[in-house]
Write a structure and sequence with these properties.
14% strand; 8-stranded parallel β-barrel; glycosidase; Amygdalase; 485 residues; globular; single chain; alpha/beta; GH; TIM Barrel; 16 helices
Length: 485
C-alpha cells in the first residue's frame, strides 16, 4: 500500500521571483541596450484609460527616442538592484531562500539583439549575482525572456513577428548557457508566453500597428517562440548536464458561471485557449482544438520543414506558471465584470478581491495544480503568486501586512493539499519578495514584497530596504518546510 504524502518534499524549493526590468534599474549602464520594457511610461491612475496601457505604437516609440514624448519610465530605474544586489540577496538568505527566480535582461548581453559579440560587462554582472547567490546556498532560477526584448529587434525585425529572431535568441541562449553552465541549473524560456495574445509588444517586441493581420501575426510570432524555446531546451541539455528547462504560463483557471451547458462549453474553450501554450511545450505538438480556431480565424501558420519534429523532440522538463486569481466565464455578455491582471471575466460572488480587483481564490490553486498535473504528468513549479496591496509604514517604521500573510498562508495550505493529492510540485517562488515596479501599471504603490522599498509612484524616496511583518512569517514557513503557517 502506498503511503500518502503528508507535506512538501524535503528538497522543496522555497523562494521568491522577480524580473530584471522591474528591479535592476541601470538601464543605460555598462553597455546595456534599450529593451521593450524601457519604452513603458508611468501613467498616473487618474489619467489611465485602463489598467494595462502597455501596448506601444510605432509613433510612440519614435516620439520617445526623439525626446518628443516626455514621461517617467520607472522600469528604467527599477529599485536599483544592479547596485544593491548584495544587500538584497543577503535579505533573501536571511529568510532562508532555497531558490531565487530572476531574469537575464537580453539587452544587457546583446544590446541590440543581433550583435556579433556579447557585452562582457553584462555577462560579468550576472556572474557576480550568481556567485552572490551561491555564497548563501541559493539556487538561481533564470528566465531567458521576461518582457525584455531588445528594442533593436523591434526596430529592425518587428520582434518575434520575424523568424530571424529565432536565431538571435538561440545565440543569446547558447551564450548564457555556456557562460553559466556551472552556476545555473534551472531555466525558463519565456515568461508568461501567453502574454503575446494580450500585449504583443510586451510579450515579444511586436508593434502590432505595423501589420495588416493582427491575429495572424500574433500566432506566427508565438510559433517562432515555440521553436526557439524547443531549440533552447535542446541546447541547455547539451551544454549543461543535469539542467532543467521549463516553460511558463500565466495560468487562468476558470469556472463556468452556471451549469448552463453554454456556460460550461464556453469555459472549456477558455481553458483550452489558455492551456494551448503548455500543450505545445509539454506535449510537443499543436493540440487538435487549435486547428478549428486557426481555420475559423483565418490564421495560416508558416512552418518550415522540421518545425514539428523540433517541437516533438525537445519538450520541457517541467511546467511553471503564475497564479494570482481565477476567472468566471459566461456565454452571456450580461453580468458584473471582474478585474484582473490583463484578463477579465464575470464577477464570482463567492470570492473576495484585492484592492486592484483581482479575485482571491486559494482553493482554485489546488484545482489548477491537479488539472495541470493530470494533463501533463510533469513536475510543476509555481514561479509567481502573491498579493499586490497598499502598505502603510507606521511611525516606528514597522509594516503590519497581515493581509499579505493571510493570502500567502491560504495559498500555501492549498499547495500542501495538492501535494497530498499526488501532484509533483517542486517549488514555490512568491512574487515579488521585495517591492518592485509593477509590470502592468509601472507604479510602486502596488506592493508585493516581504521587503519594503522606500520609493513612491513619482520616483521619490531613499530606496532604503526594511522588513515587513511578512518577512519573519515567510522565514518560519521556509524553516519549517511549509509546516508552520
Amino acid at each position: 500500500m502506498t503511503k500518502t504524502v503528508q507535506g512538501f518534499p524535503k528538497d522543496f524549493l522555497w523562494g521568491g521571483a522577480t524580473a530584471a526590468n522591474q528591479l535592476e534599474g541601470a538601464f543605460d549602464v555598462d553597455g546595456k541596450g534599450l529593451s521593450s520594457a524601457d519604452m513603458v511610461a508611468y501613467i498616473p491612475k487618474a489619467l489611465r484609460t485602463n489598467d494595462h496601457a502597455i501596448e506601444i505604437t510605432s509613433q510612440r516609440i519614435e516620439q520617445i527616442l526623439s525626446g518628443e514624448f516626455e514621461a517617467r519610465f520607472p522600469k528604467r530605474e527599477g529599485i536599483d538592484f544592479y547596485h544593491r544586489y548584495k544587500e538584497d540577496i543577503a535579505l533573501f538568505a536571511e529568510m532562508g531562500f532555497k531558490v531565487f527566480r530572476l531574469s537575464i535582461n537580453w539587452a544587457r548581453i546583446f544590446p541590440n539583439g543581433d550583435d556579433a559579440l556579447p557585452n562582457e560587462a553584462g555577462l560579468q554582472f550576472y556572474d557576480d549575482v550568481f556567485d552572490e547567490l551561491h555564497k548563501y546556498g541559493i539556487e538561481p532560477l533564470v528566465t531567458l525572456a521576461h518582457y525584455e526584448t531588445p528594442l533593436g529587434l523591434t526596430q529592425k525585425y518587428n520582434g518575434w513577428a520575424s523568424r530571424e529572431v529565432i536565431g538571435f535568441f538561440t545565440k543569446y541562449a547558447e551564450t548564457v548557457f555556456t557562460r553559466y553552465k556551472n552556476k545555473v541549473k534551472y531555466w525558463i524560456t519565456f515568461n508568461e508566453i501567453n502574454m503575446m495574445t494580450l500585449s504583443p509588444f510586451t510579450g515579444g517586441g511586436v508593434v502590432i500597428d505595423r501589420v495588416d493581420n493582427k491575429l495572424q501575426t500574433i500566432y506566427q510570432a508565438l510559433h517562432h517562440q515555440f521553436i526557439a524555446s524547443s531549440l533552447a531546451t535542446k541546447l541547455v541539455h547539451e551544454i549543461i548536464p543535469g539542467s532543467q528547462m521549463g516553460c511558463m504560463l500565466a495560468r487562468m483557471e476558470s469556472y463556468a458561471n452556471t451549469c448552463n451547458p453554454e456556460d460550461v462549453l464556453k469555459n472549456q474553450q477558455e481553458n483550452q485557449m489558455n492551456l494551448y501554450f503548455t500543450d505545445v511545450h509539454a506535449r510537443g505538438e499543436y493540440p487538435r482544438y487549435m486547428e478549428r480556431f486557426f481555420a475559423e480565424n483565418n490564421v495560416a501558420l508558416q512552418k518550415e520543414p522540421g518545425d514539428d519534429d523540433i517541437l516533438r523532440q525537445y519538450t520541457v522538463d517541467y511546467v511553471a506558471f503564475s497564479y494570482y486569481m481565477t476567472l468566471t466565464v459566461s456565454a452571456s455578455p450580461e453580468g458584473e465584470r471582474a478585474q484582473g491582471n490583463l484578463f477579465g471575466g464575470v464577477k464570482n460572488p463567492y470570492l473576495k478581491a484585492s484592492e486592484w480587483g483581482w479575485q482571491i481564490d486559494p482553493i482554485g490553486l489546488r484545482i489548477m495544480l491537479n488539472t495541470m498535473y493530470d494533463r501533463y504528468r510533469k513536475p510543476l513549479f509555481i514561479v509567481e503568486n502573491g498579493l499586490g496591496a497598499y502598505d502603510k509604514v507606521e511611525a516606528d517604521g514597522s509594516i503590519h501586512d497581515t493581509y499579505r500573510i493571510d493570502y500567502l498562508r491560504q495559498h500555501i495550505a492549498q499547495m500542501k493539499e495538492a501535494v497530498r493529492d499526488g501532484v509533483e510540485l517542486i517549488g514555490y517562488t512568491s512574487w515579488g519578495p521585495i517591492d518592485l515596479v509593477s509590470m502592468s501599471t509601472s507604479e510602486m504603490s502596488k506592493r508585493y514584497g516581504f521587503i519594503y522599498v522606500d520609493l513612491d509612484d513619482d520616483g521619490n524616496g531613499t530606496l532604503q530596504r526594511s522588513k515587513k511583518d511578512s518577512f519573519d512569517w515567510y522565514k518560519k514557513v521556509i524553516a519549517s518546510n511549509g509546516e508552520e503557517l
